[in-house]
Model the fold of this input.
Amino acid sequence: MLTEYDCRWSSSIQEINPEDWETIYGKDIIKSYGFLKSNEIADFEGVEFHYLHIYKNEKDIIAIVPCFIYKMDLRNIASSSKAKKIIRNIRKIFPSFLKFKAFVTGSYAATCEHLIEIKEDLPAKEKDEISRLINKEIKNRCEKYKANFIFIKDVRQRDIHKLEDRFGADFKFFISFPTTSIPLIPRIKYPGGLRKKNRKRYRLFKEKFEKSFEWKIVNDYQGEISSQFTELYQAVLDKAKNKFEFLNEKFFTATNNLLNEKSFLLIASNKETKETRVMVLILENDYNLIPLYMGFKYKNDDSKVIYLNTIFRTIEEAEMRNKEYVDFGQMSYYPKTMSGALTENIYYGFWSYKPLVRYFINYVLKGFFTPPQVPEHVYMKEYAKTAHNVLENRGFKLLN
Done:
């Protein structure tokens, strides 16, 4: 049966037909050819891209796995503060401690999606066969390029059992930071479905914002605007306790070039001084908005007001565009949950051909991941089920 399939590896997405890509990934913007191509065009320092594409009968695409190799700092993805502290102390003597060359499946830029995709309409037995092929191919590739381990990024709760079945007991999966989404309740204008104190919170912070700041949407964000966004994004990155990736201006410019009809910047500035305080890169699907990256100019007096209004304004934009929900991603759980966010677990998967690294994965790495406490949802009783249904109908397996 293996002889039916043709496994090919490419170093550029341009070696894959865009129509073949859409056959596997559909029209989701976060999985799109253009978004993955923007990763490649960005020419991130130290990142080397690889793409596995599998064909049946030489020409029929049946699976794609985008991958990349880079030097990965395990401290950046650890959710345990104790583990981070131990690593920091050891690095005072050994600066390279737990910095490994990793072979990673998925997108370098954040997606909260694992991107290991097999053509949906194949029979179950054939999907199992293709899964074994993918397993074998990525393990061989990892060893060929002398990476220390395979890292499977961003497996949502809805897919974890499928991935565990496909990749077997030799891969270990650990819960990482959950992802957050805010559903839009049909026929109930935001924040109408939230509890009284959360609606009051919305009105209070929106009034404070509107006294001094205003919003605008920018569809063409190349040149000076992209440069400014990169600078503000860097300020957010510098403050972040966990740094999942390090982006650059070329990436943001590429998203504008390749996704220009499905991407825009939401910008808040001071009404009087015109000083820009926040910029958010947002991607658009038919059914949701994805605020992907934020740039922020921090000041002690009003940063909280601006941050909360960034959440509110994105939700309102989604309402105006008749979306079902906003996918807010990981981190900042309290302000997002108080604004109506529901959460879904995300997992990381690891495997190594090296005995010492495999031992570390099997017996030590679990201690790096302590899932944060996510607050209960803030919906009124009469709207809670409807809010959950909005996301569950899209496949979410919700925590709160």
Q: What stands out?
A: The radius of gyration is 22 Å. The mean pLDDT is 93.
